[in-house]
Design a protein that fits this description.
6-stranded antiparallel β-sheet, globular, 2 domains, single chain, 37% strand
Length: 150
């Protein structure tokens, strides 16, 4: 049999519970799921995001936040198992929670509670000076402390 199971509780239960003999238990990869590819995203107008807000952009796996230092964007791809927290979770100015396995993050994407172990990825934000239109550039990663002034 060429199927492999991860050496974690779920994999162990599948092997033992299913009575499958001879299936090798391998360590799961510790790789963090890549953020969903979002490209460049129109996030509306800067005036729609008051200071203290963090909102998902539709059902895309990205959120736009606005704090006292400016605007920032972060992925909503949970770093535990890759769930999209925009559709399977909770996103607010108070923080984020993954509805798949319960990982929690603060508003800047730092892990507060597992099973996730890695922080969320941040993306560049551009604001058109003339119109106030916000664009999230999901192809450009930035440090979690980067902000774009309004």
């Amino acid at each position: 049999m060429s199927q492999h199971w991860c050496a974690n509780r779920r994999g162990f239960l599948k092997v033992v519970g299913g009575g499958v003999a001879g299936v090798p238990l391998l360590s799961c990869s510790s790789a963090v799921p890549e953020p969903a590819a979002i490209g460049k995203v129109d996030a509306g107008l800067a005036s729609s995001y008051p200071v203290g807000s963090l909102e998902s952009v539709g059902s895309l796996a990205v959120a736009l936040g606005h704090d006292e230092r400016g605007f920032y964007a972060l992925t909503l791809t949970c770093t535990h198992d890759g769930c999209n927290m925009a559709t399977q979770g909770f996103v607010s100015g108070g923080g984020l929670a993954c509805g798949c396995h319960g990982a929690t993050y603060d508003v800047n994407g730092h892990v507060l509670g597992g099973p996730a172990k890695a922080d969320l990825t941040h993306f560049a934000v551009n604001i058109d000076a003339a119109t106030g239109a916000v664009t999230i550039d999901g192809t450009t990663r930035v440090s979690a402390d980067v902000r774009t002034p309004a």
